Every structure is written in C-alpha cells, then in structure tokens.
Amino acid sequence: MTDAPASADPIDVLLGVLAIGETGARTSEDIFTASSHPMPGGRVFGGQVLGQSVVAASRTLPPDRAPHSLHGYFLRPGDIAKPLTFSVDRIHDGRSFSRRRIQAFQEGEPIFSGIASFQDDDPGFEHQVSMPDVPGPEELHGPSDLVHDRPEASLLIRMNPIEVRHVGSDIYLSVDKPEPRQAVWTRLRRPIGDDPVLHRAALAYLTDFTIQESVLRAHGVPWSTPGIRTASLDHAIWWHRFGRADEWMLYVQESPSARGGRGLAQGNLFSRDGRLLATVNQEIMLRVPGA
C-alpha cells in the first residue's frame, strides 16, 4: 500500500475496491469488475480478492441469505495495475442453502477460484470454543510504536486499513520466542457503516493479514529476513456468527505443520465479548534462503 498518496484515507481506499462494478452482462454467469489498492511490490493482496469475491457472490442472492463458508485457491499473482473481472456461477439454490463459484480474472487468466456457500438464518444446536484470557488491545502497543526507526515500514502501517496489536511481541524485526502460535487484536481503523455484506467482506479481507505469522514465528523467522518469500496458496473461512469488522476482534492463530516449502495456519476470530465469529485455515508457500 505504499504507492497510495500519504494523504489517502486507507478505509476509503478499502471501501473503493470493495465497491465492485456491475456490468449487467450475464450468460451462464454474472460478471463484475473491480480495481485493486496499491501494495508493495505491485502484487494484489489476497485478502482484497477474498473480500471482493464475497461482495460479488452476495450480489446474486437475497440479503437474508448470508455466507457461511468460502473455500478458494490463489492461482496466480495478481497485478495491481490491471483491472479485475469477477464471474459468479449460480451453481445451486436450495430452500436453505445456495452455492456460488467465484473466479477472478486479469487479462483473461484466472488468478483466484473459489466456492462460497450461503444459508438462511436457521435455528439449531449451538456451542463454541472459549476465547483465551489475554490483555485487551488498550493495554498493548501498536506496531507504529515499534518500527518508528524504519520509515518504509511506518508508511506501510499508516496506509493499512487494518489495525493490529500483537499479544506479546510482533515479528516485524525479530522473533523473541519461536513457537507455532500467536494472538493479535485486529479491526478496521474506523467505522464503515452498518451494511452486513460489507462487514462480512471486510472480515474476509482481514483474515488474510497476520495469519501467516504463526508459520514464520514457529521457525523464528521475522518479516525483515533478507530474501524471504511468502504467498497464500489457498484460504478457507467459516463465518459462525455476525460481527462488525470495525470493532476489536481477537485473532488466535496456530500452525500445526510445515513441510516442503509450505506451512499450514489456522485461526479463530473472536468478538470483544467472546463470541466465536469465524474460523480460518490457510496454507502458504514459504521460502527462506538457506532453509
């Protein structure tokens, strides 16, 4: 996001890319268009495509049928300078559930492919795991307090629509204690209104941020490691309960395995009052010189 003007409001930038365009074109699929926000290196942020996919698929459904899961693969690196086209295939509509296949294209080539499932709000059994007892976000330092001596990192943080506060130390510059788990408080930097579709899309957006760190932390690898290369391979989200993406949430993350240049990360996202909002799985490519 370092290519954006320093005066740009990062939430306005995020809302702009989530406001996908409707072409009116439809054969067997609905077609939408979108743009990308700036990113270091010029590659499209995976969370952006996830959020845009939620918005695109939701446009083909009544408002009371909400997403409960999304499973997707990142096929190619996206280019922020090129427009995005989303196709939504209405593969199933039942009495309670609907499924949509979503693909994102650039210049005719797919960069993302996923399937989302939607459901009416039905009654049923309910239980959840408990949120861990950790210090609240007000008790923790923000990352801008910790990387003030690195201007490029500080600019990246200021232009990020996501606010993050690590429970314990972050891994921007070093890893104090290698272990395959971490927890962060996270939210959007300011309110975004009351549209539930927008909040679900924004939640999908922020689930792709920091979850990779449980893999890196397990091996004592900070983001500042020379030559480090990471990329999201696939991503799965299960929405359990509605939550606002502009209010503090605790993102509890763990990496159960890494092998073959890949690492698996899992996360639970809790509301401030302890409700389990979503569960996330992601596998990444991780390459570190000499590893």
UniProtKB/TrEMBL annotation:
<dbReference type="GO" id="GO:0009062">
    <property type="term" value="P:fatty acid catabolic process"/>
</dbReference>
<dbReference type="InterPro" id="IPR049449">
    <property type="entry name" value="TesB_ACOT8-like_N"/>
</dbReference>
<dbReference type="InterPro" id="IPR029069">
    <property type="entry name" value="HotDog_dom_sf"/>
</dbReference>
<protein>
    <recommendedName>
        <fullName>Acyl-CoA thioesterase 2</fullName>
    </recommendedName>
</protein>
<keyword id="KW-0378">Hydrolase</keyword>
<feature type="domain" description="Acyl-CoA thioesterase 2 C-terminal">
    <location>
        <begin position="181"/>
        <end position="283"/>
    </location>
</feature>
<dbReference type="InterPro" id="IPR025652">
    <property type="entry name" value="TesB_C"/>
</dbReference>
<dbReference type="GO" id="GO:0047617">
    <property type="term" value="F:fatty acyl-CoA hydrolase activity"/>
</dbReference>
<dbReference type="GO" id="GO:0006637">
    <property type="term" value="P:acyl-CoA metabolic process"/>
</dbReference>
<dbReference type="Pfam" id="PF13622">
    <property type="entry name" value="4HBT_3"/>
</dbReference>
<keyword id="KW-0443">Lipid metabolism</keyword>
<dbReference type="InterPro" id="IPR042171">
    <property type="entry name" value="Acyl-CoA_hotdog"/>
</dbReference>
<comment type="subunit">
    <text>Homotetramer.</text>
</comment>
<comment type="similarity">
    <text>Belongs to the C/M/P thioester hydrolase family.</text>
</comment>
<dbReference type="InterPro" id="IPR003703">
    <property type="entry name" value="Acyl_CoA_thio"/>
</dbReference>
<dbReference type="Pfam" id="PF02551">
    <property type="entry name" value="Acyl_CoA_thio"/>
</dbReference>
<feature type="domain" description="Acyl-CoA thioesterase-like N-terminal HotDog">
    <location>
        <begin position="36"/>
        <end position="119"/>
    </location>
</feature>
